[in-house]
Amino acid sequence: MYTCICNAIRECELRKAARQYHGGGAESVYAKLGKRPNCGQCLEEADEVIREERDALIEPAVAA
Question: Which InterPro entries match (predicted)?
């Protein structure tokens, strides 16, 4: 599924980038993908996806 239609960024690509690039929100992750927000309608959902992925990285470390 596409998270950002304007840039054709799929949710799976966004999740992978969120795991690789640990700083910033959607706009920072988009920049790491060589993109930038156009209409901005995707940013709230993108930030949520990024937060989910980063939280998932932290949970196993906390449980250990």
Answer: BFD-like_2Fe2S-bd_dom_sf
